[in-house]
Amino acid sequence: MESSELESDILRRVRALLRELDGHHPSCQSDRGMLRWTLHKKIEQNPSTSCVLVRILVKELERAERGDLRHYIIPLLHTLMYTLIQAPCIPDELCARVYDFCKRLLTLPKPFCTIGLDYASRLQVERTAPGTLYQRMVISEQSLWSAPFPYQEKIFIFADPELLPEAICNALVTDTEAAQVSQSPQGCMSFVVTHALQAALGDTCDIHGLRARLQALAPGDVEHWFQQVVAAVEGAASEGGSDRGQHMAQLERIYHGLLGSLPAGNAPQEGLQGTPLPNPNISFHLWTEDEQLWKELVLFLRPLSQSCEPDCLGQELDPTDMQDILAGCGCCEQSRFSVLSTDSGIERDLPAQDEPSAADTEPSRLHRKGGIKKKLSPLDSVSLLQAGSAVPAGKPPGKQPRRSGTAPQPLAPLQRRHTARVMLLGDDRILGRLAQAFHSLRKREARRVFLTRRLNLQFYHIPVLPGHSSAAADAAGPEGLCEVAGYLGRADPWYESNINTLCHMIPKLASMPSSPSRALVTDLFLTDVIAYYARMGTQPVCFQVHSVKVLFRDPAQDPAEDVFLTELLTQVQDSPSHRDLNTTKRKSSLDGPGIDLTVTYRKVVLSDRHKELALALRSTGLLMKAIPAEEAEGLGCLSVTITEIIRINNLAGRSFSAVANRFKAQTIKIGSPEQRPFTVRLDKDSRRTYRDVIGLEVSPCLEPSYCLQKTKTTKFNLHKTEDMGLVKYLPKSLLLPINTFAGVIQ
């Protein structure tokens, strides 16, 4: 294909992307969401056209800037950066144009200025040391050990087997496993070396000879050259203003040392050759246990069988951290921490000690009685965490006393060297489970920080509708089960175009019969879209988590506390006893269906002042929605709809009509004066249904660390209710962040 025809074809594909953003979907609905994928695949097949695509995207960005078409900017910028990361070599003048455009975005509101600043800083590093962005992405995603860049990433895909059909779960397991089979650490290291040398040397790099040489080397030799290339690239990138020519000369010496006796300048002139971008490290999990998310994150930080370099996985566990992790459940109300002792209590199990010094006295010696040492299971969480701990096995995990007069040893600052990208597949019901798990995790962290200072935790959501029919699905409908994804699609058009289209596509791919064509489609498309979302979706949309306190009819039953993300539904409960049933029928014939309720709520007003209102009415049910139907409504309040029963007296007799009473509230309390029970269902999940309920209280869920710190502060200031000290600077509400490509575009 000639250069003019090639440029016209790429321009036509880019314009088709922009038309889809405007709501003009392609004539074939099956092509929705595949335009971006086909464009990148075309560039991967012909890497020499990367510069052509980058030039076209820069022109379209400048045209969107002049025409004030801001909804084009972020999709075009993401497409450009994803191309630039994988491109074999981009001229510096072209990178400079992109860099200048990103700097101009700093004058725009969020999220444009945030994304512009992020990409401008990345481009500055890439211009100083070409190939840095590709190298860092591969090292972190493949967990390759490198001292200059000791960062790791992993994608955790969670799916609820009770919400998705078995065929979809099996297909996703097969595809994610197949994506990892063809990759090896040695191959990924070779990719990093090849891409870095070609990005620096350009057309003079003998890419075929380089690949052949790397394939012939032993794994240890490949790692040796990999470490040299990483050290050279990271050294130049960290210095920033260093001489680019000096960096090129250093990589050229590595290139000639790697090729050995091959003469320089005899590279075949075949143009630039692309280097594949390996699939990220993806693990698929069927969410069957409540604490499964916590366990997988701990395993990611400290594998059970760990034989890496000491600094490869970040800092070792402190003894105080071991106390917290092994203590079990972390409720922020507890003031005393459980401590796990590794001491068996048997004297012969004591470690060998040196002779006591003169300062030691005989009465201080510890005496033991006989006992039986219990052997723990190797799969026990205690053994799991001790395997990755720096605490010796024979010492108790407490703080060691220090002698008076000696200065404490300074602790090295902790860095977040791990990034866990947790991707939820399903509808709003699995996001409700995520809100529960996130609240539990934050309660652990409030008691003793462990994951927060070592792990960068990010959440993603891919909507997938269940293939089978269920009671919740029939009641809510297909669109009603994906309200969160619908809101994210309205807030971010690029999320709507690339992710929401998977809602119906994944079940179709899973239902395809096993064949080479099915493997080709799923492996290339689904895995690539998941990787693209995880790599480029960095802007969170924060959803308010709401807490609910449920009061039961039985006085002996303690109130239940739970959280929800999307909605709470109450319905009148059928009375099981014959006496209550007769009373209900007699009452319904006089006052109509439903039960009497008292509702007290704090109304949402523009002035943000507290305005308490109270209602007494008869109702058959109530629905609270936390996800607004319109983007402009915001995420900070509840939309409440009460089905109120109105009695009408006329000449024909008494009749009843149902009227929807709607209002917005921040907090709400509901009670049944007659002690008539009703049911409460959270997040459209029938498994989270409470029965025999006579009252409930709903309010925005508070951040557990805020609650703990406020409790400590009020102990010394009993008469002051306002926030004081550190509490004023802590986040008050618990927000669940879900990443998209742009966040909420203003």
Question: Concise description?
Answer:
The chain is α+β, with helices and mostly antiparallel strands and 746 residues long. Helices cover 42% and strands 18% of the residues. The relative contact order is 0.10.
Describe this structure in words.
This protein is α+β, with helices and mostly antiparallel strands and 746 residues long. It is 42% helix and 18% strand. The strands form three sheets. Strands 6, 7, 8, 9, 10, 11, 12, 13 and 14 form a nine-stranded antiparallel beta sheet that branches. Helix 3 packs parallel to helix 5, helix 7 runs antiparallel to helix 9 and helix 9 crosses helix 11. The chain starts with a helix and ends in a 6-residue tail after the last strand. About 11% of the residues have low confidence. One of its GO terms (cellular component) is phosphatidylinositol 3-kinase complex, class IB. One of its GO terms (molecular function) is 1-phosphatidylinositol-3-kinase regulator activity. It comes from Cyanistes caeruleus (Eurasian blue tit). It holds the Pfam family PI3K_1B_p101.
Topology:
Layout: H1 3-21, H2 35-45, H3 50-66, H4 70-86, H5 92-104, H6 112-128, H7 132-142, E1 152-159, H8 166-181, H9 185-201, H10 207-216, H11 219-239, H12 244-259, E2 282-286, H13 292-301, H14 319-326, H15 381-387, E3 418-426, H16 428-447, E4 455-463, H17 471-480, H18 483-491, H19 493-498, H20 502-511, H21 516-536, E5 539-544, E6 546-552, E7 560-564, E8 567-572, H22 578-591, E9 595-603, E10 612-625, E11 638-650, E12 653-671, E13 678-682, E14 689-700, H23 704-714, E15 735-740
Parallel strand pairs: 1-2, 1-3, 3-4
Antiparallel strand pairs: 5-15, 6-7, 6-14, 8-10, 8-13, 9-10, 9-12, 10-11, 11-12, 12-14, 13-14
